UniProtKB/TrEMBL annotation, chains A, B, C, D:
One of its GO terms (molecular function) is inositol 2-dehydrogenase (NAD+) activity. This is Inositol 2-dehydrogenase. It is an enzyme of class 1 (oxidoreductase). Gene3D superfamilies: Dihydrodipicolinate Reductase, domain 2, NAD(P)-binding Rossmann-like Domain. Pfam families: GFO_IDH_MocA, GFO_IDH_MocA_C3.
Amino acid sequence: MSIRFALLGAGRIGRVHAKAIAANPDATLVAVADPFKEAADAIISRFGGEARTVEEIETAGDIDAVVICTPTDTHADLIEKFARAGKSIFCEKPVDLTIERVRQCLQTVEETDATLMIGFNRRFDPHFRAVRRAIDDGRIGNVEMIQIVSRDPGPPPANYITSSGGIFRDMTIHDFDMARFLLGEEPDTVFATASVLVDPQIGELGDFDSASVTLATASGKHCTISNSRRAAYGYDQRVEVHGSLGSVAAENQRPVSIEVATSAGYERPPLHDFFMTRYTEAYAAEIASFIASVKAGKKPSPSGADGLAALLLAEAALKSVNEGRAVRLEEIGG
Amino acid sequence: MSIRFALLGAGRIGRVHAKAIAANPDATLVAVADPFKEAADAIISRFGGEARTVEEIETAGDIDAVVICTPTDTHADLIEKFARAGKSIFCEKPVDLTIERVRQCLQTVEETDATLMIGFNRRFDPHFRAVRRAIDDGRIGNVEMIQIVSRDPGPPPANYITSSGGIFRDMTIHDFDMARFLLGEEPDTVFATASVLVDPQIGELGDFDSASVTLATASGKHCTISNSRRAAYGYDQRVEVHGSLGSVAAENQRPVSIEVATSAGYERPPLHDFFMTRYTEAYAAEIASFIASVKAGKKPSPSGADGLAALLLAEAALKSVNEGRAVRLEEIGG
Amino acid sequence: MSIRFALLGAGRIGRVHAKAIAANPDATLVAVADPFKEAADAIISRFGGEARTVEEIETAGDIDAVVICTPTDTHADLIEKFARAGKSIFCEKPVDLTIERVRQCLQTVEETDATLMIGFNRRFDPHFRAVRRAIDDGRIGNVEMIQIVSRDPGPPPANYITSSGGIFRDMTIHDFDMARFLLGEEPDTVFATASVLVDPQIGELGDFDSASVTLATASGKHCTISNSRRAAYGYDQRVEVHGSLGSVAAENQRPVSIEVATSAGYERPPLHDFFMTRYTEAYAAEIASFIASVKAGKKPSPSGADGLAALLLAEAALKSVNEGRAVRLEEIGG
Amino acid sequence: MSIRFALLGAGRIGRVHAKAIAANPDATLVAVADPFKEAADAIISRFGGEARTVEEIETAGDIDAVVICTPTDTHADLIEKFARAGKSIFCEKPVDLTIERVRQCLQTVEETDATLMIGFNRRFDPHFRAVRRAIDDGRIGNVEMIQIVSRDPGPPPANYITSSGGIFRDMTIHDFDMARFLLGEEPDTVFATASVLVDPQIGELGDFDSASVTLATASGKHCTISNSRRAAYGYDQRVEVHGSLGSVAAENQRPVSIEVATSAGYERPPLHDFFMTRYTEAYAAEIASFIASVKAGKKPSPSGADGLAALLLAEAALKSVNEGRAVRLEEIGG
């Protein structure tokens, strides 16, 4: 049985998923919906399927699952629509930028017993997975302190910032999910510091480009997250977990690993400069995991609840910056 | 225009090329030939095309190029056949295990002005390419000394050894090609030492499993190659080029790059354990290069002459081991 | 002219300094004072000098400088005594565990115009110095975010904890000084989280063994510090500075740098397991710097004010943990 | 009991040993002999002892051991002189540049039952020792293939070349000793290639500046050595041993280990640029080992026989270059 897919949104992340679907022997791309016809056609000509409207997909008998890659403000509506239509749903993060709307949407998912997976792709990166596996295998004993460094190669354009929900909901949210993936215990307190060091325009839009966040759990585990919207040397994505018996760290990735030694020293090339090349394997494994869950009739992971949990941490971080204090998750309904 | 391909030989390396062809927007897999029908069908069901005989492909009007992945002893015949049929030819190394037959075959290629590329995939590995680029960019000055370490994870089965032509023609041949790719000058002398340290059965079959080779050029450049049929830690593939202004080295590759630190020390996972996973990107880039050459009507590289040159070095190495002395290429007609 | 030294306190850190003095061509060890005669004699027999009392040293005409390595609660008194006696003073950190006493003592130093250097040895580590130099040379642009990881191999005994002043005054204080050394701007806010994850006894004594601290400056620079009293893999001492043009990081140090590759992976030995072997070069360079300052008649660095500044950060960190909020330095008189 | 030393030769290597003797609690520097009085005095003023002639030292009752750091052509005479005088002898390599004279000298050592250690300092480097220990501990199984890379930062002056005995006797000799230290079996065959790539003047003097050597043992183990008189990035000193269960490698050493990441890539500083800073610890451990042997009344290692064995390999290498063939040690009396 091949899972029959419809892709909603034919932008660059949509294309990544279309490619993963086409390459997966257990899946077929049947339909692509995008108001911008050329975008849909470009994907169709390369990876198969046909152009359809969202409404056609909603009622189609030959579609098992949808992949939602549309703008963020349409996610919750589409999840609800396809939950009611009985389709399995993979949705890019976030469900929505407001807690209330996310809760409402997840309520619908629960009532319809829909299958929903949220696109926290980093959980599927082979290096981060191996970190988790090292923990699960007991190699570092009890997890105590985590350090996540997550820096973009360069700041996004102003119009992206405007609709992004801010650095915590847009960028740190991946790190919040990673923290939850690795801590083995829910954070209950968040402290965050944020500032504008990279691009004054980001500050003018009310956002930050540099942030340091500390999460703490009830038993006293810590996780610190360091974010910057700029890293001259590429896409900096590191995780290190310190435990009672040792540590495990995922190293940065570069497209080419050579070393040139001259009188100036030993030089290796910069890192990947783009999240899509950095996370190529993660995106493919993510969709493969979704397909496997759908085939097996199991609820996929990360779930809608994982999406909500990360958003709550983002909310708490923002509150912490504004109030200069540690914020407990329970204060914001977490 | 899409280049229309026929695949000859549906074994594991054939499958690698079929995948690369299917994924390449400028190519189509039209036909697959293999006496073992199930193998051909498995590839067809996944990557397209239909089953045909070699003869059908030879005379087909809808085939532009063939990829030869059949057993070594059929390579020369097939090259000649398809050269005469006017197809562009990609052939896995080696053309043949005997110098004489290779020369004869290349003569036919020349007479028919055929397009022939030999599958020295490592030239297309992004890391080795970057080494070459660093040299071409003048970053290390004049090339002086090269060191190649090339070790398999484990020895092949006895029946493979029997038909392989021996370690120099089968394994070191890749390193000879790499040496030529990087030296910037043809080696004119070969000295080789070889022994049986890994598997006595290999010795009983008249072959070696461990070899150290030194190549020298007229101007005094050296290249040393270290081969072993066994490396407990994986597929060890390193190249280092020392020049007047510095050095450049390609590092080993591992599927997962984490580091676990415990009281025992800092541990990173083993290397890739299989040439296909190690050289995934190289295989795709290799076929892409062939396709681009065919589209552009240019002669591809590495050529049949490159195949011959590497084989001559293998021949010289074997003679050197037998006679305990440095062998000049000209002694064997190089 | 050779600087004539008296050593106060013949414990293990005293021995380190005695060795550095003896090996320095510009210094001579003239006297050693320690109530435990065997300890003083052991140093004298190896590095020269004679046993004297503190009082004899105070009035001696043949002593230019003293090195104070006595218990912490004697530091301030001894600094004052030797400031009045006109001796140059090198004192191990901290000046005292209370802010008030430190201010009082530094007042005396100022009134007597005494020469005082505080033993923040890490500033003299060649690797951390090189980090600072890379910053000063403009290689990473403007400093934005710093990350310090500082972990002991194992927790100290309970009686050490009791007199240590707690993790922030005893352990993090080095990191606070390092942060000030590298930030290029004074931190004005401190947020700290601390817990007991390593040794419950430390918690029973009212202290913590695991801490995460974030410092922020007026212009928005951040520094995060991660401390643990236990690292199974050795003495973990890392600093990374992120700037507008790149980053610079000091790597961990190990006594032996080999790598063993087996089927289990690639393994390097653990780090140094003791601060004295880790910072051997730093201790020697520290005393050399003090000697050079004394010879040149200049005020040495780090100064008493640096000692106070680090202690204020420790105080603020403790207050932050207790109150669950960011604490401004000015709140505690900083 | 403190071993009482005389130092013969107050040049830069003599100074290194004087420092090691002065710092060793089991040794005392009693006398220094050097025709150049200022050199001797400089050492005496720093590390103790008094100036004496070689003859005075020969007959002195207060000297237990001599350290010979004089020009190479005096080594054999001095060894014989002090062997007869009953002093323990540490002599810098080589004993002599000719095999015959070495044999003669060692004959005297044997007849007088003298204690003689040859200065192959690299055996005492902590990293190379750890490589040996990993082998001895069985971590890599049976040793099969060794690779030694040994490159100087830059070529020596012409007058040094003239008296050096050529690259094999002067530079490769250290690598020959390292090969013997690690192989666990004597090499019986040598093949060498050498050329002039760095400095034409070296060629005019009849020497080489670039060499590749392969050693082989009776059981088929190989060791390749790659030498160059120039490495733009510093003093390149690597050893890698490949065995049946894995490999062990000693990494290069740099004085400062930081990494600067910018848009150009990740850069670490160059290596040590001088053998004395690279091998500081090795020199100290070497003399400590000699002192320990003398104190214990044991024959030290490496011995005079080790000095001869390395010289025989150098001789064989030179013969191999000249004759373009593998040379068996037995051909030159090995």
